[in-house]
Amino acid sequence: MVKASIFYIVWQIIYDLIILPDGRLDHFLSVSVAVLAKNALSLFGWNISALDRLIVIEGYRGVEVLNGCNALTLMALYSGFIISFQGPNKKRIIYLLGGIGIIFILNVIRIMAFSLATVYFQPHWDTFHEFSPFIFFYPFVLWTWYQWTLLSDDQYRTDSGLSFA
Amino acid sequence: MDIIKRRPISYRLRAILCLTLISLFYILLIRPLRIHINQEIVAPYFLALQEENQELITIENRRINIQPDGYDSPRGFGVPFGGYFWLPFAIFLISRQKLPALGLAGYHFFLGIILPYLGILFYRGQYWAGTVLQINELIFQAVFLIALFFGIKESVDQWREEKELKILQ
């Protein structure tokens, strides 16, 4: 927990001092999520347009992917645990890259859902937005962390077995 | 002397009861109380700090945001003991993990004191306090997720043990 806290503090300082003022990473994540969500919805036949971070289904309210909505924070949160919790290093890289990739994809699906929410339940959009991490992100993050701790336990058992042999 | 052996409440029933009661407790009492505390105590204090025609502070139901000149996005804090406390707390209660539950409660008490203070410092030009508020946002989410994770993990382990015991009986 201490290791994870240090990781999060260092990450937030780097984010505040370098990544946020630079703006490119946030902009890339937000725009690519918006464009991919727009393309996916177009494939399903929706008449939808995208302008930078904004996507709009024709005739309905737009959805703007702000910095707080591009899932970068969640990627850092997810990574902090995987980095801090002991485990095999080769698989750690797979879990890190795979997890970040899946969070990105889940965010595209989430933004698609936000856009569809403007059509089907606009009055409840804010509530949906507030609880969306519980639907799209947290189950995945918790499940992957669990798998990671199982791997970590396995390695611990193997290591202690070797040391006693 | 007769000893009455009570059958312990099953794990599943305990989980359902605990989650339902805590949800009701939160929705009926805690949520309105958090809004009341923010609107009636915290917000007026912060608004009083603000000079006329200044619009640096925005008040939400359960949150205060401060955006000094030169900042693209606001920094702020929410009233602690929200859903991000009660969900892991309920899971700790279900799995009878007293120490983590107390630790979580202590953390939220600490936030209740330190966050408004950091907010005041940030408003008064101590910009490092803004960075600490941002760090807190991340740590806050991390504490929630990690508490939830270990709470659920322990719960699942206990539930499995109970199941195995039943099979053995």
Description of the structure:
The complex is a heterodimer of chains A (165) and B (169). By secondary structure, chain A is mostly helical. Chain A contains six helices and three strands; from the N terminus they run ααβββαααα. A three-stranded antiparallel sheet of chain A has the order 1-2-3, covered by helices on one side. The radius of gyration of chain A is 19 Å and the shape is elongated. Chain A starts with a helix and ends with a helix. Chain B has 169 residues and is mainly alpha-helical. Chain B contains four helices and three strands, in the order H-E-E-E-H-H-H. Chain B has helices spanning 11-49, 83-94, 98-123, 128-168, and strands spanning 57-59, 63-66, 75-78. Chain B has a three-stranded antiparallel sheet. In chain B, strand 2 (63-66) and strand 3 form a beta hairpin. The longest helix of chain B has 41 residues, at 128-168. The relative contact order of chain B is 0.12.
Helix/strand structural class of chain B: mainly alpha
Shape of chain A: elongated
- Unreliable stretches of chain A, pLDDT < 50, 5 or more residues? none
Averaged pLDDT of chain A, please?
A: 90
Q: What are the key terms here?
A:
A: 165 residues; mainly alpha; 3-stranded antiparallel sheet; 6 helices; 3 strands; B: 169 residues; 7% strand; elongated
Describe what is shown at a glance:
The complex is a heterodimer of chains A (165) and B (169). With 165 residues, chain A is mainly alpha-helical.
Topology:
The complex is a heterodimer of chains A (165) and B (169).
Chain A lengths: L1 H21 L1 H20 L4 E4 L2 E4 L4 E3 L7 H13 L4 H32 L4 H12 L1 H27 L1
Helix pairs in contact in A: 1-3, 2-4, 3-4, 4-5, 4-6
Chain B lengths: L10 H39 L7 E3 L3 E4 L8 E4 L4 H12 L3 H26 L4 H41 L1
Antiparallel strand pairs in B: 1-2, 2-3
